[in-house]
Amino acid sequence: MSELLDKILSRNNMLEAYHQVKRNKGSAGIDGVTIEEMDNFLRQHWRETKELIKQRKYKPQPVLRVEIPKPNGGVRNLGIPTVMDRMVQQAIVQTISPICERHFSEYSYGFRPNRSCETAIIQLLEYLNDGYEWIVDIDLEKFFDTVPQDRLMSLVHNIIQDGDTESLIRKYLHSGVVIKGQRYKTLVGIPQGGNLSPLLSNIMLNELDKELEKRGLRFVRYADDCVITVGSEASAKRVMHSISRFIEKRLGLKVNMTKTKIVGPTKLKYLGFGFWKSPKGWKCRPHQDSVQSFKRKLKRLTTRKWSIDLTTRIERLNWVIRGWVNYFSLGNMKTILTQIDERLRTRIRVIIWKQWKKKSRRLWGLLKLGVPKWIADKVSGWGNHYQLVAQKSVLKRAISKPALTKRGLVSCLDFYLKRHALKVS
What we know:
This protein has helices at 3-8, 11-24, 38-54, 83-101, 117-129, 143-146, 149-160, 163-173, 197-214, 233-250, 288-301, 310-328, 334-356, 359-368, 373-379, 386-391, 393-398, 401-407, 412-424, and strands at 63-69, 75-80, 134-139, 177-179, 182-184, 218-222, 225-230, 261-263, 273-278, 281-286. By secondary structure, it is α+β, with helices and mostly antiparallel strands. The strands form 3 sheets. A 4-stranded mixed β-sheet has the order 2-1-4-5, with no helix packed on it. Strands 6-7-3-8 form a 4-stranded antiparallel β-sheet, sandwiched between helices. It has a two-stranded antiparallel sheet with strand order 9-10.
């Protein structure tokens, strides 16, 4: 057994991988073993699995294929490995990532330590503000499904040069996929959803990074989302065609020429962000598609038909609000969040009015919130005209922003202002 594989299978590394898989949670693979059942399963099977890996006899289970709907239509294929395979893959990643990091580009930001979508956007803004305002937006067609595995494994070999580990990685590539109970071979592609997939995609696309650097081009890449900024339209056209040829001939990948395009910053959507020019230069904000997606999520969580107590509903809303605002907190969005906050509070007032149901209950609720009795008596008789009631000033004052904040609801705007202040300070 090689020194590298010994390090992968070491007790400390496997324990770290085990804890990471448990933190990530996720669904069961084809064997049906859940995260909750992981402890007992490992006690029974880990020792045997470890020996099989050492002897190059281990056969990973096929991944379970599920389809995740995309916001703009279509589906994304996601592979769910078994919990055992997730743990082994995670152990491989933890061990070989530091080796790979020495080879990766400074302008690759996806799934790497101390890098994020935010750092990618900051770099892109720097290019735009330096005057490189013509953007080549490269779209790789079904990247994870079309990666040539032999080419990928030769690149893995160039970096790690360890036969035992390479053999184990290749087995994961060849492990197959189960779709609606039917097993299929996987002779091309990387199973999207496995712990190894992000690292393998970076190894594959590192060749593209090297080529762009060799040509002196300014680029940002996050996984398979790559944009190149240049100073003129003529340069953009030249770069788009030559880089597309390089990707297809040298890497064996497919460029989607209908989606690969040359755009100005205001027409670009990158990692969910849009871009606009202020008197102080180019800035970012959530793209209108991202805003609409956020609004749809909040609307689903505040539908009157959903029978759920207000506390749980607010918890779900807060989880979505914090996640979305955290992701986009680098951008400018005070105006849109003010509007979203107002609409959200209106919808919650409707929910509360419906939950009170009867006039006596509504009268009690209004009085408890400090509404004068003569007004409360009148308003409580308005019945189920939800939008009318929710938008009346009396209910706005009674179920006010401070009242909802006290109830636990996070204000999108207030949370953003706090996060944004931390980012720019």
